[in-house]
Amino acid sequence: MSELVPAIEARGISKYFGAVTALESVNLRVMPGEVLGVVGDNGAGKSTLMKVLSGLHPPSKGELLVGGQPVHFGSPRDARNRGIEMVYQDLALAGNLRIDENIFLGREQVRRLLGIFPVVNHKANARHAQEHLDKLKIHVKSVQQRVEELSGGQRQAVAIARATAFDARVVIMDEPTAALAIKEVRKVLDLIKDLKTHGISVILISHRMDDIFYVCDRVMALFHGRNLAEAPLAETDRNEVIGWIMGNKSRADVPQGMDLN
Questions:
Q1: I want to staple 221 with a disulfide (CB 3.0 to 4.6 A). Which of 43, 154, 206, 244 is the partner?
Q2: Which CATH superfamily is domain 2-95+168-253 in?
């Protein structure tokens, strides 16, 4: 029965910024181990919704549930404590720090010096970082490499590793392949697919139809801050999804030959 309970669910979420309505009665649900694609034009409300789900913005109206239980996030830390992690487009990694230091930044394992003074246990952090990278099939020369020495795809993989290192239920990703070379895109998408095998749910914001149709199980579209449409990937196609982005529910309304990458 637990598999029938969404990992995270939003019911009737609205968000107002003064007189501006960013979201109006938006619903979203993601099942355990599911990859949900979220599409929409600029200003559709995608980023605002993700910031509500990750605790950055409190909703003006509506309800959030994690594992079927109502939750109230006062900050991103509250969301992380319930297993909701966000990987932003700029990654927010510290380039001058090592891979293992980035993965455990702010959550380092410590040991007691002379049984009293807490100091960072670098050996334990490095060991556990390597074990976590191995579990996710992320290959780097050494966990002691500085992040600034990595390629774009490797940095994205480290950001995903950091997000999943502490019992994540749901990982939200904002355009994870937008700045990557073509050869690195597939590696990141395969990593997202691999998260499913660990029971981790993923919410993927992307403008790239190739990404959506390669990795997602289901896709939903927002338009002007509202739900427009959603469907399993097996029951839709690129033209229909592109039509949703444009605000059309009918496949016939999509100009022939139009595609987004």
A1: 244
A2: P-loop containing nucleotide triphosphate hydrolases (3.40.50.300)
